[in-house]
Amino acid sequence: MLLFSAIVPPAQLAESLELRLGALRPQAPDARWTPPDRWHITLGFYGEAEETETRVDWLRKALAGQPAPVLRLEGAGTFSRVLYLGVYSESLIALATAAGAGAERPYLPHLAVARTTGDVPAELAQGLSRYVSEPWTAIEVVLMRSDPTPTGRRYSVVERFPLEVRPAGQASG
């Protein structure tokens, strides 16, 4: 079992993005497209874990009082046979850092949408390069567990951590 913290995009965004990706799928018939119910923006990756309660307690303290970021997906990129959409927000880096991101390598906020066995075809990233989602407010972080199955990994929510939604222009106090 692997543990990681993440933000899950809202259903209306997933529906809109799914329509956009549908037009790209014929260009990469061998790609493994991530289903919308598995889409997430990883904040902190914690690796193998036997006991989750320690991580739950740690995250509860680390995320207490963290503001709910306004996010948007914009543009596309590739790395290690992964096609992803960029994630932009003024406060996402601070939230991810609080959740443990950046300790091992620089944090790259992204939403992975497909994996390939070889290089990601350039036309896929080009096909998403002008994509811009509607902004949304992430009202919670989830601690996820990832378990191997014969057909891939299965994700499940271990715990939810609400974020502080503040009126526009209000700073933390």
Automatic annotation (TrEMBL):
It comes from Amycolatopsis acidicola. Residues 9-82 form the Phosphoesterase HXTX domain. A motif (HXTX 1) lies at residues 40-43. HAMAP family: RNA_CPDase. The active site is at 40 (proton donor), 110 (proton acceptor). It holds the Pfam family LigT_PEase. Its EC number is 3.1.4.58. Hydrolyzes RNA 2',3'-cyclic phosphodiester to an RNA 2'-phosphomonoester. This is RNA 2',3'-cyclic phosphodiesterase. The keyword NADP does not apply. The keyword Hydrolase applies. Keywords: Hydrolase. The gene is thpR. Belongs to the 2H phosphoesterase superfamily. ThpR family. One of its GO terms (molecular function) is 2',3'-cyclic-nucleotide 3'-phosphodiesterase activity. It catalyses: a 3'-end 2',3'-cyclophospho-ribonucleotide-RNA + H2O = a 3'-end 2'-phospho-ribonucleotide-RNA + H(+).
